[in-house]
Design goal:
Layout (H helix, E strand, L loop, with lengths): L10 H16 L4 E8 L2 E7 L8 H12 L4 H6 E7 L8 H7 L8
Parallel strand pairs: 2-3
Antiparallel strand pairs: 1-2
Amino acid sequence: MAKAKKRAPDANLKSIRQFLKQYEADHPNSSGAAYRRNSVSIRIRIIDPQFKGLDRVEREDLVWPLLDTMPDDAHADITFLLLLTPDEVGNSPGNYEFEHPLPSRLS
């Protein structure tokens, strides 16, 4: 059986992963992950204990200004932004979808 070749991360995904490395450096107890779901969609998850007590909008208000500093092309590919505390990971339908994505009809 032939092995599927892993595609090298594209420039937009590389920009987002670089952002996540910087976010983790600035927020030592956080972790970030990103993957390209299809040709027009990148999904991002940030787990950060500093989100505790903040609603979804407040969490986004902390993260989007940082994401806005990325190149427009990378920014435009973000279709899923999941911001969780460590305690929310196990009960989050969004996290389940992040970990077990449904197949995309796009390539």
